[in-house]
Specification:
Helix content: 40-55%
Shape: elongated
Distance between the termini: 19 Å
Radius of gyration: 23 Å
Strand content: 5-15%
Order of helices and strands: HHEHHEHHHEEHHH
Largest sheet: 2 strands, antiparallel
Structural class: mainly alpha
Number of helices: 10
Amino acid sequence: MKKLLMLLSLFLLPFVSPVQAAGGHGIELKPAENNLRDQDSLKRGAVLFSNYCMACHSVKYMRYNRIARDIGWTDEEIIQKMAYGQNKVVDTVETRMVDGVATQVLGTVPPDLSLMARLKGTDYIYTFLTEYYQDEKGNWDNHALKGTSMPNVLEGIQRHAKPEEYAQAARDISNFLEYVGEPAKLERLDLGWKVIAFLLVLLLLTYLLKREYWRDIKH
């Protein structure tokens, strides 16, 4: 029985969500509470990412047509809504910043965000986007990353929208970046439960077969 329980725990281990600790961030992370199955959120997040993030950042491991297929847009819609007619549907999602400008203006090249959600977690991204504040001199800083050189790109939403709308915008971007980090995550999870169910049935049949083989053998 102990071996059976250990085997089951190994099967279930990949489906247990790791707890994202706040250690190392210097602030307690706020839960993003995003939902990869919410395609409306993913669509809003894609548009927000295009409008507020792509001036500096890219998600170069994704192509426009893959995003369109996964979140429910046609090829024409994603070029209109996210690329604004400037790219082909087979292009990767690159920053709109001209080469060399980042180093000249910012002193560094802003990172690609394709794997940021897997590296930092969506709670960190959501917390980072919602923890901007202005110091005594009126300069922007961030509680989640002190001294950040990234400006508050959502400042306009923060100033002119309701707090819940601002939080939803940050959540939608976090949701989109989680999708970008692993586009096949939902397929993996859905397939994983089917594989586990199949293995459990196979385990039961194997156990019953073993009992049948050993039924007439005296120990």
